[in-house]
Write the structure tokens for this entry.
Amino acid sequence: MGIGVQITFDAHDPGKLAEFWALALGYVVQPPPPGFDDWPSFLVSIGIPEDQHDRASALVDPDGAGPRLFFQKVPEDKAAKNRVHLDVNVGAGSDDRQAAARAHQATLEAAGATLLRVVDEPGGWCLVMQDPEGNEFCLQ
């Protein structure tokens, strides 16, 4: 059995970036712990001041198959190209993978993503994009 993994993103606005990635991956914002109707109620119960409620957000795969994504607030800007990135395989299982990727591209651009370039090489095809905070990812 493999060891579980969480993918962590540094962000200026964890909530907004989490919303983008929920759309990109079909994930959902992680529900609050049992006994709480929302995250602010939980955070208040453990003594987190209201001005700190925007420090983090998390997403989970609604089917429980994919890793948890965690978004944490940091003060600094992104300074260089990612050394690790996500490949979003929206076209998997489609008869026309490129058309599926292009359709999802339009959705993600409307949510703040940017197309950087198209990779069309003998080994594969993908759209290299950036999320609203500049993190690179591949859409295929």
